[in-house]
Amino acid sequence: KWHKDNLGTTWNINEATSKMTQMGGSGQVFNFPGTTVGPEQHDVIEQEFAAQSTIRGSASKLLGSIENLNALLDAGTATGPGEEWRQVARGVSHALGLSSEETDLAMARHETFRAWSNDVVLPRVKELGARPTDKDLQFIIDASPQLSNTPAGNRLILKALQIKAERDLDRANAWDDYLDMSADPKDAFYNKK
């Protein structure tokens, strides 16, 4: 039996052997020995596989953004109370032709930090669904790295986001291990300190 999932992947489902094989691409095979896996179970497995794949992609992207934001903080990007006003002053001096190379670099770091911060916030806002409340949005923004936070505050927020993303990756990998049945799901997930 052939089935195409919502990610566009085609699967060959052999109900007699309880084997699900990805056709084309990575050639992943999911074995369910000793059981008869019916269409309902295949649908549940497919949905969970798609969900974990989405979680893995989001977590990987978040870890990249966190790495970039930490690099900007390490490079001396100024954050903290009043940073937005300092950026306005830098912009005025730049527009008047009075800015230095150092000022221009500070402006570029500011703009880059804001862009990467937005890259962290947007996926978290999308997780709230179609109609998040203003309170929900404010909560996500407040719990994200921002130019108005001190560098130490931003680092603490980034560390918390990193821990969450690493746990999401561990959970997705544990799901893969479970489906593989030849791997030990306790190896990386349950022994994580």
Structural class: alpha+beta
Q: Are there runs of 5+ residues with pLDDT below 50, and where? A: 187-193
Name the helix and strand elements from N-terminus to C-terminus, one letter apiece.
EEEEHHHHH
Give the percentage of residues in beta strands. 5-15%
Instruction: Determine the mean pLDDT.
Output: 79
Give the number of DSSP strands: 4
Helix content: 55-70%
Order of adjacent strands in the largest pleated sheet: 1-2-3-4
- The value of Rg in angstroms is 23 Å
Characterize the largest beta sheet: strand count, sense, and whether it forms a barrel. Answer: 4 strands, antiparallel
> What distance lies between the first and last C-alpha atoms, to the nearest angstrom?
42 Å
| Number of separate helices | 5
Shape: elongated
Keywords, separated by commas or semicolons:
single chain, elongated, 8% strand, four-stranded antiparallel beta sheet, alpha+beta, disordered C terminus, 5 helices, 193 residues
Topology:
Elements lengths: L1 E3 L5 E5 L4 E5 L5 E3 L7 H36 L8 H13 L5 H26 L7 H9 L8 H30 L13
Antiparallel strand pairs: 1-2, 2-3, 3-4
Q: Quick recap of the structure?
A:
The chain has helices spanning 39-74, 83-95, 101-126, 134-142, 151-180; strands at residues 2-4, 10-14, 19-23, 29-31. With 193 residues, the chain is α+β, with helices and mostly antiparallel strands.
Structure notes:
The protein is an alpha+beta fold. Helices cover about 60% and strands about 10% of the residues. It has helices at about 40-75, 85-95, 100-125, 135-140, 150-180, and strands spanning about 1-5, 10-15, 20-25, 30. The protein has a four-stranded antiparallel sheet with strand order 1-2-3-4, with no helix packed on it. A hairpin with a 5-residue loop joins strand 1 and strand 2. The two termini are about 40 Å apart. The relative contact order is 0.12. The model is unreliable at about 185-193 (pLDDT under 50).
